[in-house]
C-alpha cells in the first residue's frame, strides 16, 4: 500500500516504529495530489515547499506522537498566518492573514504538516462547492458529480487520499453532507466544543469547526487536539475534553438509539432509507435498543435556519467593505459607491442573496415576523431534541435526502439546493454534535448515516460510530480515480 | 426664547471609561499614540475575529449607574448596531439595545440657586469607532485617512430625559454629570481629548402644550460654551422657522464653532435602519445583587455628598461648596489646605478667585499647576501674621503659580516682607507729608482725595510693602500733628 | 410575499450591494420565493416561547484589564488596498 492510502493512525504507528519518515509521507501525498488534483480540484492553495521543510525538521527532531509529521488540509475558511486565505471568494482572493486560527494553531503546535487550503462554497454558503468563486470540486467517486458543500474540498481531498485528514466547518450541514457524498467520516461537534477564533464567520450562533477523516479513530484523534476552551472565543465551552479514543471498544450493548420518523419521509431516496434501516438493524444485532420517535417541529427547522443564518451572515460579511483588506473597486468616486461596488464585484450571487435575505429579515418592520420568529422556532426545535434525549443516548437518521447530484444540476433554483440540508440543519439549530459515517452505496455513490448526540457527548457518537464501522467494510472502500 | 415657546432639551453623553485596555480586546486605550499603533485584528474587524468583554468596563458602568441612582437590572446583553462607515471596521458597532446595563435614575442640578432634578433614561456600554482624518472639511476633502486606534475604546452612553428647559440647565447638567463621573473615577472626562462627548436633542413647543415638537440632534459640541450657544441658536432657528410657517425636519445638525451656527448633516443616501439583533458572539450578563452591593460599598464620596459636607462642616455657602466639589482634585486641594489652615471661607475665596483665574487663563487643571496646598497655606499664614499684605500676596501668588516656588522663598528672594515696623515707616510718612504742604491743607479742608494721595505716595516709596493698616494709623496721626 | 423592486433596492442599499436592473428583478423573485417558504413558520404558535439567542447557557465571560502588545502597524496595514501616512486611505465621504 502507498503511504497516501493509509489512515492517520496507521501512519502514526509506522512513524513510531521508525519504518517511515515524515518527509516520505509528505512526498507520497504530493505525488498523489499531482496525479489526481486535475480531476478532483480540491485545493485552492498548495503548500508543498513549506510542508517538506516542516517534515524534514520533524524528522531531524525525531519525535513522533499524535499527528506529528502527518500532513493535513484546511478548508480555506481557517485563517493561516502567512498563507493566503480566500474563503472561496474573490473579495479575499489575495488576503494573507497575519494570525492563525486557534484550531489550526493547535494542529500546528502538535507538529501537523499543512499540505494546503481546500476549496469551499464562497463564505461557506452552499451545499455543492459550486459556489466557490474559483472552480468547482469534483466528487472522487464520480467526477461528474458534486462533492457536497460547503466543505467540499475537505471531503474530496480525504476521499481521494490527498490528505489523511482535514478540517472543515459546519453551519447547516457543511461537514456532514459532503462527508456523506464522499464516503468519509465527518464530525461536527457540539456548538462551543471547538474555538471559532480565526475561522471566518458565516453565522456566529451556528458555525462549528469539525474534522474529516478516513475512519472513526482518526477523527477522534484529531478532535482530541482541536477541542477545548479558548479564552479568545467567548462562546467556547469551558468543559473538559475527554479522550475520544478511549471508548473505541465496539460495545454498544444497551445503547438507546432513537430514529425520528420525520427524517424518513417520502422526500428521502428509498435506497438511502433502506440503508439506514439496515444499519439500525445492525445496531440492534450489536445489542442496542432502537425505537422510533418524533421530532414534531422538524419541518420548520430549514425555513427558520434560512432566516437566522443569513441574518447573522449579513452582519458578519459587512466588514468586507474594501477599506482595510481584500478587494476594492478603485474606480469608485466616493466611499458609499466604493462599498456598494466593491461588494457587488467581490461577492458571488449566493452570497449576495443571503446577505439581502438576512438584511431583510432584520430590517425595520420585519424583525419580529422573521428573525425573532425564527429564534422562537429554534427553541422549539431544541426542545424537541431535549425531550428525546431525556430517554435516549443517540439519534440516527440519513445524512442527506439523496446521494451526490450532478455538477450544474441544481444551479437554477436556490431553494432546491437548500433542501439538501434538510436533515442536517436541525442539529445546528439545536447546537448538538452530529456525525456522518459511510453506511452504504446507491449505484456506486456513497450513502451517509447521521449520528446525533447530546450536547458535549461526542464520546458516545465516536463509540457508536466505531462499533458500526468495525462491523462493516465501508471505511475500507476507496473511489477509483483511474490512477495509482 | 419668548414667552410663547419653551425649549425642550435632552442630552446624550458619551463618556470614555477609564480602563487600560479596550472593551473587547487587550489593546491599550492610551490617548495620543501614533496612528494605528494600538490596534489588532479584533478591534480592526479582520475576518474570523471575536470579542471578549473587559470585566472592568462592566464594573465602571455599574458604578456610574449607582451614582446616577439607576436601576441595575439582573440581566443585560449586547446587540449589534449595523451601519457602514469607514471608521466602523466591522460595519456594526457592538452596543446595547433593549437590555442596557443601567435603567432610569436622576441627576440633581443647580442653576443660579434653582434646584432641579433631571431624569436619566438609561446608560449603556458600547465600543467607540475609529477616527477619520480629512483634508480640510468633510464635505470637500478628496480622500480621507482612517486611524483605528480609538476603535474599541469602551464608552458609556448616558441618555437624559428631555427634562431641561434652557441652555443654562443643559450646561449645568453636563457640568454636574462630569463632576459625578470624575468623583466616581470612571472617566477622565476631557472634552478636548474626546473622552467626554455630548450631543443635544433640541425641540421647542408652545408653552402649555403637552406634545413635544420635532427635535433635531446637534453634534460637534466640544465645550460647555459650545453646548450653550448651540442650544440657543438652534432653539431660535426653530422658532423662526415655525413662525415663518415652516416645519421642523427631524435631522442631525452639526455645530459650526467658527460660524456659530448649526448646519444640517442630512445625507439623502443615509437610511438609518440599524437592524439591531442580539450579539451572538457574547454571552448575556447576569449581574448579581452581590456584585452590585460590592461595588456600592466601594463607591467614593459623590459631589452632592461632598458639597453637603462642606456646607455643614465649614458653613460655606452652597455656591462656594459647589465650585469646590466640581472635581475631585478641587476637593482634595481644599481638604488638604483645611488640614493646616482651618479658615474655609478664606481658602475657598483664594481657590475660586485668584487660583481659578490663573488656571483658566493658562488652561490648566488644579492638579497640573505649580501651586501646592501647602504653599497656599503658607501664604495665608503669612497674611494672617502680617508679614505680607493682601495686595502683596496676590503678586506672590502669581509668582508661585509661574515658578512653583514656595512663598517663603519668593518673599526672601524678592525681599517682599511687609513693613510693619513703626520705626521704619514713620520717617517715610513724615518726609512725604512735609514735602507736600498743599495736600496737607487739602486734607485739613476735608478733601478725602488728599489721604489717598499720601497713601499712594507712601506705597510707591515702599514698593507696596508698607502695612496698609499701620500706614493709615500713622499717617492720620502725623497729619493731625501738622 | 412578493418583494417589489423598490423593496429590493432598499435592502440592497442597506446592505451596500449595487445591483443591475436584471439582478434586482432576479434576486427579487428568488428572495420572494425563499420568504414564501419562510412564511411556513407563521402557522406555528410561538407567543409564549422565549427566543433562543445563545446556544450555551453561559453568562459573564470576561477578561481582565491587562494590556497585551498590539499588532505591529505594518502587519496591520499589509493587506490594505490603499494606505497613506500609516492610515487606511479611502475616497471622499460625500
Give descriptors for this structure.
A: 484 residues, alpha/beta, 11 strands, C: 94 residues, alpha+beta, Histone, subunit A, 3 helices, 35% helix, flat
Report what the structure shows.
The complex is a heterotrimer of chains A (484), B (482) and C (94). By secondary structure, chain A is of the alpha/beta class. Chain A has a domain at 3-253 and 423-476: Amidase signature (AS) domain (Amidase signature (AS) enzymes). In chain A, 37% of the residues lie in helices and 13% in strands. Chain A has helices spanning 8-16, 22-40, 48-61, 102-109, 152-159, 176-182, 216-226, 270-285, 301-316, 335-346, 349-362, 368-389, 414-418, 425-430, 458-470, and strands spanning 43-46, 71-75, 113-118, 165-170, 185-188, 208-213, 256-260, 289-293, 394-398, 434-442, 445-453. In chain A, strands 1-3-2-4-6-5-10-11-9-7-8 form an eleven-stranded mixed sheet, sandwiched between helices. In chain A, β7 (256-260), α8 and β8 (289-293) form a beta-alpha-beta unit. The radius of gyration of chain A is 21 Å and the shape is globular. The model of chain A has no long low-confidence stretch (mean pLDDT 97). Chain B is an alpha+beta fold and 482 residues long. Chain B has three domains: 5-294, no CATH class; 300-413, no CATH class; 422-481, Orthogonal Bundle (Arc Repressor Mutant, subunit A), CATH 1.10.10. In chain B, strands 1, 6, 7, 8, 11, 12, 13, 14 and 15 form a nine-stranded mixed sheet that branches. In chain B, strands 5-4-16 form a three-stranded antiparallel sheet, with no helix packed on it. Chain B has a two-stranded antiparallel ribbon with strand order 3-17. In chain B, α2 packs antiparallel against α3, α7 (328-340) crosses α9 (373-384) and α12 packs across α15. Chain B is elongated. Chain C has three helices and three strands; from the N terminus they run ααβαββ. Chain C has a two-stranded antiparallel ribbon. In chain C, α1 packs across α2 (21-38). The mean pLDDT of chain C is 95. Chains in contact: A-B, A-C, B-C. The interface between A and C is large, with 70 and 52 residues.
Amino acid at each position: 500500500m502507498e503511504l497516501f492510502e493509509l489512515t492517520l493512525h496507521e501512519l502514526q504507528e509506522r512513524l513510531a516504529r521508525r519504518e517511515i519518515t515524515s518527509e516520505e509521507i509528505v512526498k507520497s501525498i504530493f505525488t498523489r495530489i499531482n496525479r489526481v488534483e486535475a480531476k478532483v480540484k480540491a485545493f485552492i492553495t498548495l503548500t508543498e515547499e513549506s510542508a517538506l521543510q516542516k517534515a524534514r525538521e520533524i524528522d531531524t527532531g525525531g519525535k513522533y506522537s499524535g499527528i506529528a509529521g502527518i500532513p493535513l488540509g484546511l478548508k480555506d475558511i481557517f485563517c493561516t498566518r502567512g498563507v493566503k486565505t480566500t474563503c472561496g471568494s474573490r473579495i479575499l482572493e489575495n488576503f494573507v492573514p497575519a494570525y492563525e486560527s486557534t484550531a489550526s494553531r493547535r494542529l500546528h503546535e502538535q507538529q501537523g504538516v499543512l499540505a494546503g487550503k481546500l476549496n469551499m462554497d464562497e463564505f461557506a454558503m452552499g451545499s455543492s462547492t459550486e459556489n466557490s468563486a474559483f472552480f468547482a470540486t469534483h466528487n472522487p467517486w464520480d467526477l461528474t458529480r458534486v462533492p457536497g458543500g460547503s466543505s467540499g474540498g475537505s471531503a474530496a481531498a480525504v476521499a481521494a487520499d490527498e490528505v489523511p485528514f482535514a478540517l472543515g466547518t459546519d453551519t447547516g450541514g457543511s461537514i456532514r453532507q459532503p462527508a456523506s457524498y464522499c464516503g468519509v467520516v465527518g464530525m461536527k461537534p457540539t456548538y462551543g466544543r471547538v474555538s471559532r477564533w480565526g475561522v471566518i464567520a458565516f453565522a456566529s450562533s451556528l458555525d462549528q469547526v469539525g474534522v474529516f477523516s478516513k475512519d472513526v479513530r482518526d477523527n477522534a484523534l484529531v478532535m482530541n487536539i482541536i477541542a477545548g476552551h479558548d479564552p479568545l472565543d467567548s462562546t467556547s465551552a469551558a468543559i473538559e475534553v475527554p479522550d475520544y479514543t478511549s471508548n473505541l471498544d465496539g460495545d454498544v450493548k444497551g445503547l438507546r438509539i432513537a430514529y425520528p420518523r420525520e427524517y424518513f419521509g417520502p422526500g428521502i431516496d428509498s435506497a438511502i432509507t433502506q440503508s439506514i434501516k439496515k444499519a439500525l438493524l445492525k445496531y440492534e444485532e450489536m445489542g442496542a435498543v432502537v425505537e422510533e420517535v418524533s421530532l414534531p417541529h422538524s419541518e420548520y427547522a430549514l425555513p427558520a435556519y434560512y432566516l437566522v443564518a443569513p441574518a447573522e451572515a449579513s452582519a458578519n460579511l459587512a466588514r468586507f467593505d474594501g477599506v482595510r483588506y481584500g478587494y476594492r473597486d478603485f474606480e469608485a468616486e466616493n466611499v458609499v459607491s466604493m462599498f456598494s461596488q466593491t461588494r457587488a464585484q467581490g461577492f458571488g450571487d449566493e452570497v449576495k442573496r443571503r446577505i439581502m435575505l438576512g438584511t431583510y429579515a432584520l430590517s425595520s418592520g420585519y424583525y419580529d415576523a422573521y428573525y425573532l420568529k425564527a429564534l422562537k422556532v429554534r427553541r422549539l426545535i431544541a426542545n424537541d431534541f431535549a425531550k428525546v434525549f431525556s430517554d435516549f443516548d443517540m439519534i440516527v437518521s440519513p445524512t442527506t435526502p439523496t446521494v451526490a447530484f450532478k455538477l450544474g444540476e441544481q444551479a437554477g433554483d436556490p431553494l432546491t439546493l437548500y433542501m439538501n440540508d434538510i436533515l442536517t440543519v436541525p442539529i445546528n439549530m439545536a447546537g448538538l454534535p452530529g456525525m456522518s459515517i459511510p453506511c452504504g452505496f446507491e449505484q456506486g455513490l456513497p450513502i451517509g448515516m447521521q449520528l446525533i448526540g447530546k450536547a458535549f457527548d461526542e464520546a458516545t457518537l465516536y463509540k457508536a460510530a466505531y462499533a458500526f464501522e468495525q462491523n462493516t467494510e465501508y471505511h475500507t472502500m476507496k473511489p477509483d480515480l483511474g490512477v495509482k | 426664547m419668548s414667552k410663547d415657546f419653551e425649549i425642550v432639551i435632552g442630552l446624550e453623553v458619551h463618556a470614555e471609561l477609564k480602563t487600560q485596555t479596550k472593551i473587547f480586546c487587550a489593546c491599550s486605550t492610551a490617548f495620543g499614540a501614533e496612528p494605528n499603533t494600538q490596534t489588532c485584528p479584533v478591534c480592526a474587524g479582520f475576518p474570523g475575529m471575536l470579542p471578549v468583554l473587559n470585566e472592568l468596563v462592566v464594573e465602571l458602568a455599574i458604578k456610574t449607574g449607582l451614582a446616577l441612582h439607576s436601576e441595575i437590572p439582573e440581566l443585560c446583553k449586547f446587540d449589534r448596531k449595523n451601519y457602514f462607515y469607514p471608521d466602523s471596521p466591522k460595519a456594526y458597532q457592538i452596543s446595547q439595545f433593549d437590555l442596557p446595563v443601567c435603567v432610569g435614575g436622576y441627576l440633581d442640578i443647580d442653576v443660579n440657586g434653582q434646584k432641579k432634578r433631571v431624569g436619566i433614561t438609561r446608560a449603556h456600554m458600547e465600543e467607540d469607532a475609529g477616527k477619520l482624518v480629512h483634508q480640510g472639511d468633510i464635505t470637500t476633502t478628496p480622500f480621507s485617512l482612517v486611524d483605528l486606534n480609538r476603535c474599541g475604546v469602551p464608552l458609556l452612553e448616558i441618555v437624559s430625559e428631555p427634562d431641561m428647559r434652557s441652555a443654562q440647565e443643559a450646561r449645568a447638567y453636563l457640568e454636574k454629570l462630569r463632576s459625578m463621573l470624575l468623583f466616581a473615577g470612571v472617566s477622565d472626562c476631557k472634552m478636548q481629548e474626546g473622552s467626554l462627548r455630548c450631543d443635544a436633542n433640541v425641540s421647542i413647543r408652545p408653552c402649555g402644550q403637552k406634545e413635544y415638537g420635532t427635535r433635531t440632534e446637534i453634534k460637534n459640541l466640544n465645550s460647555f460654551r459650545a453646548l450653550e450657544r448651540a442650544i440657543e441658536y438652534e432653539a431660535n432657528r426653530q422658532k423662526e422657522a415655525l413662525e415663518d410657517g415652516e416645519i421642523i425636519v427631524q435631522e442631525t445638525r452639526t455645530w459650526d464653532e467658527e460660524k456659530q451656527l448649526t448646519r444640517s448633516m442630512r445625507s439623502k443616501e443615509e437610511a438609518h435602519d440599524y437592524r439591531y439583533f442580539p450579539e451572538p458572539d457574547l454571552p448575556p450578563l447576569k449581574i448579581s445583587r452581590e456584585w452590585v452591593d460590592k461595588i456600592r460599598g466601594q463607591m467614593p464620596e459623590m459631589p452632592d455628598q461632598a458639597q453637603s459636607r462642606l456646607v455643614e462642616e465649614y458653613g460655606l455657602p452652597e455656591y462656594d461648596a459647589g465650585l469646590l466639589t466640581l472635581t475631585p482634585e478641587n476637593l482634595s486641594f481644599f481638604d488638604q489646605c483645611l488640614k493646616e489652615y482651618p479658615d474655609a471661607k478664606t481658602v475657598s475665596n483664594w481657590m475660586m478667585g485668584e487660583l481659578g483665574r490663573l488656571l483658566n487663563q493658562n488652561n490648566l487643571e488644579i492638579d497640573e499647576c505649580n501651586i501646592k496646598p501647602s504653599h497656599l497655606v503658607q501664604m495665608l499664614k503669612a497674611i494672617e501674621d502680617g508679614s505680607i499684605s493682601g495686595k502683596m500676596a496676590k503678586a506672590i501668588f502669581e509668582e508661585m503659580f509661574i515658578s512653583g516656588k514656595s512663598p517663603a522663598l519668593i518673599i526672601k528672594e524678592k525681599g517682599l516682607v511687609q513693613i510693619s515696623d513703626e520705626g521704619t515707616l514713620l520717617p517715610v510718612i513724615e518726609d512725604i507729608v512735609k514735602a507736600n504742604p498743599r495736600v496737607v491743607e487739602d486734607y485739613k479742608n476735608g478733601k478725602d482725595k488728599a489721604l489717598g494721595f499720601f497713601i499712594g505716595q507712601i506705597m510707591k516709596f515702599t514698593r507696596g510693602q508698607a502695612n496698609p493698616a499701620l500706614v493709615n494709623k500713622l499717617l492720620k496721626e502725623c497729619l493731625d500733628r501738622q | 410575499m412578493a418583494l417589489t423592486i423598490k423593496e429590493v433596492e432598499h435592502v440592497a442599499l442597506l446592505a451596500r450591494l449595487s445591483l443591475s436592473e436584471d439582478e434586482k428583478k432576479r434576486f427579487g423573485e428568488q428572495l420572494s420565493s425563499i420568504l414564501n417558504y419562510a412564511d411556513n413558520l407563521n402557522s406555528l404558535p410561538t407567543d409564549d416561547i422565549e427566543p433562543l439567542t445563545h446556544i450555551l447557557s453561559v453568562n459573564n465571560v470576561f477578561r481582565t484589564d491587562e494590556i497585551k502588545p498590539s499588532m505591529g502597524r505594518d502587519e496591520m496595514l499589509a493587506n490594505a488596498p490603499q494606505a497613506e501616512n500609516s492610515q487606511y486611505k479611502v475616497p471622499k465621504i460625500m
